[in-house]
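Q: Please design a sequence for this.
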């Protein structure tokens, strides 16, 4: 096996020790009624892993393409790619409910092998689950069979090369299996960065970013992932699409945008051509407080509409801000509260602003423009320590979920976006739906991305896990939240559709929109082997 490729992945983030401090547990127990009901990781022996159902001829066809050493049938390899990173996925890996375990894991070595694998799967009635970092939280990599004879996970870990770099045009070609961390390391050697840092950064892959229309924490400065894509190579059971020959074109509709966000249902992305930027040499992150949600969102709206957003512009509501202070604990949190009271901040909302620039002068000009637009909103500055604290902990959320699960916490996130005129209405509706569904839940919200016309809302939920039917507990709450979202905003701003949001897609794009996408899927995937049950479940029949 190639060095650096983990062939025995497991459910959970598993990146270092991120145990909750005692004061955080005490606060959670007092706030949510949490009792001591640990949910430890189940040993492999407790989890049901059925024998592979891959036929002899199907197995032979796949081995002929990738070699026997890259067709994995062992229990650990299959179990480790059973689902993504949602709360429900993590519970199933702890022995709650049933896991959808693939029949095999296939590791192709190049884009041509991916096409050959897809053709073999179409011929032998085998469903294909494209798999990168496995960070989906909406059921996007669940090994559903979709009525197929068998189902494999197509792990792109061996497609891990920087194919080419064009420093003059500031373009790079990366294979889809390149981890985001490795992409940044390889690009830094040439003086470049993608600037794409979602919370899944430590595990996610370039292909996954493209397939799900990912948005990073610095998207206000660097753009969403689809804004970075200049070209894409897509493998399908009927051939290959190579898209993107120029920085702009009028040669019909932009088919790249049909591939980006297709979630493996139209094909498997094998290479992505991306716009890169020079690595920032000067950065500055700061924290500010504003008084109350309405005033705070008005401030962010002004920054967006005056086109002076910082690269990172993140606004926490009062509840999320209070949780951050409570979990900080000690003298420091008390000092911050006293400081805010003295400045008549009664309902504090924390605003993080971060700038990244190529020179001190550029940073100063941009920062001055941002703060000039912020000044009328009477923000109280806490300075660099708060901003730097956020920056250094920006990827800690996924890691802490394992510890929260150990403590018996129901912890999950969901997100949406809408126009400014509907933003507060949407937040109120979603918060109400979650609080009615979950007893004594802590429901936090922040604006993670802002635009001239609107913004995203990102919710984090903490509640005591139900002793009976913990999976159903969250699924009912998520359904209530989704029904609150549907008439007011998009069902997903950057988590994608997967299985969780598929029932709401028609309400957003209309029946005709579903027909259009179904027609595309049937043209590229006539037998419906690609990612069964995701995005367009009804289109999986051949």
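A: Design:
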């Amino acid at each position: 096996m190639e060095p650096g490729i983990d062939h025995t992945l497991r459910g959970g983030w598993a990146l270092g020790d991120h145990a909750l401090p005692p004061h955080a547990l005490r606060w959670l127990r007092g706030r949510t009624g949490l009792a001591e009901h640990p949910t430890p990781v189940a040993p492999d022996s407790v989890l049901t892993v059925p024998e592979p159902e891959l036929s002899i001829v199907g197995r032979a066809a796949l081995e002929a393409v990738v070699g026997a050493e890259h067709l994995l049938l062992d229990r650990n390899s299959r179990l480790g790619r059973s689902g993504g990173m949602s709360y429900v996925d993590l519970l199933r890996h702890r022995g709650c409910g049933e896991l959808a375990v693939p029949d095999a894991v296939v590791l192709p070595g190049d884009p041509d092998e991916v096409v050959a694998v897809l053709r073999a799967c179409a011929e032998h009635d085998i469903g294909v689950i494209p798999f990168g970092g496995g960070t989906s939280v909406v059921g996007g990599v669940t090994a559903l069979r979709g009525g197929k004879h068998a189902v494999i996970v197509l792990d792109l870990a061996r497609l891990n090369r920087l194919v080419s770099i064009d420093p003059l045009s500031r373009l790079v070609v990366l294979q889809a299996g390149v981890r985001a961390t490795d992409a940044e390391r390889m690009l830094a050697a040439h003086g470049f960065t993608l600037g794409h840092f979602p919370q899944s950064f430590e595990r996610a892959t370039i292909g996954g970013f493209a397939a799900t229309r990912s948005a990073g924490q610095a998207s206000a400065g660097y753009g969403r992932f689809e804004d970075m894509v200049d070209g894409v190579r897509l493998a399908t059971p009927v051939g290959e699409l190579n898209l993107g020959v120029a920085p702009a074109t009028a040669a019909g509709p932009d088919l790249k945008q049909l591939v980006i966000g297709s979630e493996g249902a139209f094909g498997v992305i094998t290479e992505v051509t991306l716009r890169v930027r020079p690595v920032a040499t000067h950065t500055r992150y700061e924290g500010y407080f504003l008084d109350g949600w309405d005033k705070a969102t008005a401030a962010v709206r002004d920054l967006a509409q005056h086109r002076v957003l910082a690269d990172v512009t993140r606004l926490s509501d009062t509840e999320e801000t209070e949780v951050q202070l409570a979990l900080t604990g000690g003298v420091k949190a008390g000092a911050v509260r006293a400081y805010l009271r003295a400045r008549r901040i009664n309902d504090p909302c924390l605003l993080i602003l971060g700038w990244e620039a190529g020179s001190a002068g550029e940073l100063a000009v941009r920062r001055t423009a941002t703060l000039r637009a912020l000044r009328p909103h009477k923000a109280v500055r806490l300075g660099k320590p708060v901003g730097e604290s956020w920056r250094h902990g920006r990827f800690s959320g996924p890691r802490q979920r394992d510890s929260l699960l150990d403590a018996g916490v129901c912890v999950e996130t969901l997100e949406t976006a809408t126009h400014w005129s509907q933003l507060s209405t949407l937040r109120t509706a979603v918060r109400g739906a979650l609080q009615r569904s979950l007893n004594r839940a802590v429901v936090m919200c922040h604006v993670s991305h802002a635009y001239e016309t609107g913004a995203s809302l990102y919710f984090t939920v903490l509640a005591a896990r139900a002793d009976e039917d913990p999976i159903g507990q969250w699924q009912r709450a998520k359904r209530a939240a989704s029904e609150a979202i549907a008439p007011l905003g998009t069902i997903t701003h950057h988590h994608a559709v997967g299985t969780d949001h598929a029932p709401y897609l028609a309400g957003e794009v209309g029946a005709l929109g579903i027909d259009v996408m179904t027609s595309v899927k049937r043209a590229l995937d006539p037998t419906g082997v690609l990612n069964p049950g995701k995005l367009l479940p009804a289109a999986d029949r051949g």
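Q: Thanks. Anything notable?
A: The radius of gyration is 23 Å. The mean pLDDT is 92.
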